[in-house]
Amino acid sequence: MERRCFLKIMGTLTASFMLFGCRLEGIFKSAEKQVSNSIDFANRVAKEVKQALSKSGESSLFSLNLVKVTMPGEMNPPMPVLSRNRFGMAIDLDLCNGCGECIYACNLENNIPLVTQEESAKGRFLHWISMVDGVPVMCGHCSFAPCEKVCPTGAATHTPDGLSTMVYKRCAGSRFCGANCPINARKFNYNNAQELGLSYQFNPKVPLRTAKVMEKCSLCIQRLQDDRLRHKTVLDSEWDGRGVKTACAAACPKKAITFGNWLNPESELVKVARGREIYAPKALAHLDPSVVYLKGKR
To answer: Torsions phi, psi of 123, nearest 5?
Structure first.
């Protein structure tokens, strides 16, 4: 190789390396800043969760007014599209100690925004899980969901798999659904959290919401959707969501929260609930909720 060609090639490689090195350094700095920002925001989330827990008070379990119900079964009324699934959860009251880890995990998984100091003073936290008398309470995902009946835009709707969901793009902020929920499980976002620096997208699979929309527990529908898609591309059998866990269930240190499919007798949820006393808040008992509470013999 001629000396001129050799120097030309080496010069090109050196310049390319320097350019790539600069970009790589920029990428590292950007990633480091992103991690730092996310850790700082996560700490703010933890602080707000503690505030919410302190405001929940230390009243007795009796005031939650739980009543006995039967194990959830087929959706009633039946969904227009028949499904072999009905997803839900059971919270074991003999195991739950009200630590609040489920709230923290839910906030990170679903990019739940923080609130302003004014909203905090009023107790208007956006957490999808509230601690009532030391017990986690979230949307019951009822068969006869009263919130869906009054939504003027169809934003509050039901899936064939038994989930009471929110289509945020349709929500007009009427708050009719929130007023019609017997346990106040729906939360209204009064502020533009992104503009105020009160939101952070920990999970890119869950969109950040705008102001003036209602928010609620989705039973981590994004995890179910991912598992359904993975199942379709790999397996050739009926999908039942087996193995999927909600963020709250996965984070619970006492394993007090179990997620699963009420229509699958082999589901971990059905196995945990079988032979136990099953309860629901009295205000929801007649609405056939998919989220229930367990006590007694295990």
So the answer is: 75, 20
Strand partners, 218: none
Q: Which of 58, 72, 53 lies closest to 284 in space, CA to CA?
A: 72
Does residue 277 contact residue 68 with C-beta atoms inside 8 Å?
yes
Closest CA relative to residue 224, chosen from 137, 161, 139: 161
Structural contact between residues 252 and 229, judged by C-beta atoms closer than 8 angstroms: no
Closest by CA position to 260, among listed 234, 233, 287, 224: 224
- What does the CA dihedral 182, 169, 244, 146 come to, rounded to 10 degrees? 20
CB 32 within 8 A of CB 250: no
Summary count for the chain: helices (H), strands (E): 9, 11
Specify the 3-state DSSP secondary structure of 277: strand
- 183 pairs with which residues across the strands? none
The whole-angstrom separation of Cα 248 and Cα 267 is 18
What ranges in the chain are assigned the alpha helix state H? 3-55, 101-109, 117-121, 146-150, 176-179, 221-234, 247-251, 268-273, 282-285
Q: What is the residue whose two structure tokens read 């899936």?
A: 159
CA distances from 242 to 158, 255, 260, 281 (A): 21, 17, 7, 27
For 80, counting Cβ atoms within 10 Å of its Cβ (0-12 exposed, 13-18 middle, 19+ buried), the class is exposed
Sign of torsion over alpha carbons 146, 105, 72, 293 = negative
pLDDT at residue 57 is higher than 70: no
pLDDT digits (tens, 9 = 90+) for 97-145: 999 999 999 999 999 999 999 999 888 899 999 999 889 999 999 999 9
